[in-house]
Write a structure and sequence with these properties.
By secondary structure, the chain is an alpha/beta fold. The chain has helices at 38-52, 68-71, 90-100, 112-118, 120-129, 173-180, 193-205, 231-237, 287-299, 317-321, 333-336, 340-350; strands spanning 60-64, 81-84, 105-111, 133-139, 142-143, 149-150, 184-189, 209-215, 238-240, 242-247, 262-266, 272-277, 303-310. The chain has an 8-stranded mixed beta sheet with strand order 2-1-3-4-8-7-13-9, sandwiched between helices. The chain has a 3-stranded antiparallel beta sheet with strand order 10-12-11. The chain binds thiamine diphosphate, iron/sulfur cluster and magnesium ion.
Length: 351
């Protein structure tokens, strides 16, 4: 295995965030993906989001499955916890890690093959169980790593590089996550950093299952005319419903926008999602309306992007299961083994 480490040279005047880290501290190994792959832009957006949010790198656990997309956690947050699972199994491994230690920020990275084919059941259960995580699907409509077969998110009628037409109905992971109970749902484009970085920030600060579908062109196998996941196609059909800013509790909200075109959503941790409306009638707090809107726009051939749904008072898996707050590896013997009297009382309560 080749591991390409970045040189450690750092400018003395490199800007530092509130916890003393430079942007470099959030980077990882040098990417081995194809030059121009959308996935590399998503990695850069993750680096920017974590730097801006003043997250300490050791407070993050990044998990992925298998695919070019699932390789990317190696290219960012080099000082964070990481686990590259098997194909489609990121959600269950992440769920287990989150149950053992709820103190970390969980970031799951996956691809459309990893999430919508082999891992679709895992994806579904992580959403419906309310796992507290930011789940990013780097969606290029193909299995990039295994040389460009159509994935389950490829649009019906779209063409592969050799001109073969896809005849299967696509799975829309955004629509599915809404139906399954995700409480922060967004779609973006790897070529739109201005939209993507705040969405990742909002997802990382959200308590509950936050899902972001990022259309991320595969320049080697799916960037030709006839593909609906190419740079040109997505730029031409991208319909943003809103634009997001994330304001941390310590920051002052200063904006020059007309209040009528703004919506403020306060999350559990006090951070504020400031949504600048683009589609004036769009309400991101209405799950059913969001589902209808997606369907309507999809039939018109549009790709809806932005923050599609958010429930700022959502509950997560820890609340549902009443889990212990302390990480399991920090619980002492007295807590884990309360003695025979406690066991007798427990047994008696079950008789
Ligand atoms: C159990 C299993 N089945 C199949 C494969 C082969 N395989 C590796 S990656 C992949 C698809 C990856 O597609 P996607 O998640 O969309 O990632 P991309 O490479 O497009 O970013 C497949 C089918 C595997 N590694 N393991
Ligand atoms: S094959 Fe496609 S998805 Fe994989 S690195 Fe190359 S451009 Fe990216
Ligand atoms: Mg893919």
């Amino acid at each position: 295995m080749t591991y390409l480490a970045k040189p450690k040279l750092l400018r003395a005047d490199a800007p530092r965030n509130a916890v003393g880290y430079t942007r470099r501290d959030y980077e990882g190994a040098i990417s081995t993906l194809c030059a121009g792959c959308g996935h590399d832009s998503i990695s850069a957006a993750v680096v920017q989001a974590c730097f801006d949010l003043d997250i300490e790198p050791h407070k993050v656990a990044k998990l992925s499955g298998i695919g070019c997309s699932s390789k990317t956690p190696d290219y960012f947050l080099g000082a964070s916890h990481g686990f590259n699972t098997t194909h489609g199994r990121m959600p269950s491994v992440l769920t287990g890690a989150a149950l053992a230690n709820r103190d970390l920020i969980y970031l799951g990275v996956s691809g459309d093959g990893d999430s919508a084919s082999i891992g679709i059941a895992q994806f579904a259960h992580a959403m419906r169980r309310g796992v507290n995580m930011a789940y990013i699907c780097e969606n290029n409509g193909v299995y990039g790593l295994t040389k460009g077969q159509f994935s389950a998110t490829a649009d019906k009628g779209s063409k592969n590089k050799r001109g073969v037409v896809n005849s299967d109905t696509p799975i829309d992971l955004v629509a599915l996550s809404l139906q399954l109970g995700a409480t922060f749902v967004a779609r973006s484009f790897s070529g739109d950093k201005e939209q993507l970085v705040p969405l990742i920030k909002g997802a990382l600060r959200h308590r509950g299952p936050a899902f972001i579908d990022v259309i991320s062109p595969c320049v080697t196998f799916n960037n030709h005319a006839g593909s609906t996941k190419s740079y040109d196609y997505v730029r031409e059909h991208n319909e943003a419903v809103n634009r997001l800013d994330v304001i941390l509790p310590r920051d002052k909200i200063e904006t020059s926008y007309n209040p009528g075109s703004l919506r403020r959503v306060v999350q559990h941790d006090g951070s504020v999602l400031l949504l600048r409306k683009v589609a004036v009638d769009y309400d991101p707090a209405d799950r059913v309306a969001a589902m209808n809107y997606l369907q309507e726009r999809q039939t018109l051939g549009e790709i809806v992007t932005g923050l599609i749904y958010v429930d700022s008072s959502a509950e997560d898996m820890h609340r549902h299961l009443n889990t212990v707050e302390k990480p399991l590896n920090q619980l002492g013997d007295a807590y884990l083994c309360p003695g025979s009297k406690a066991l007798d009382a427990l047994n008696a309560s079950l008789r």
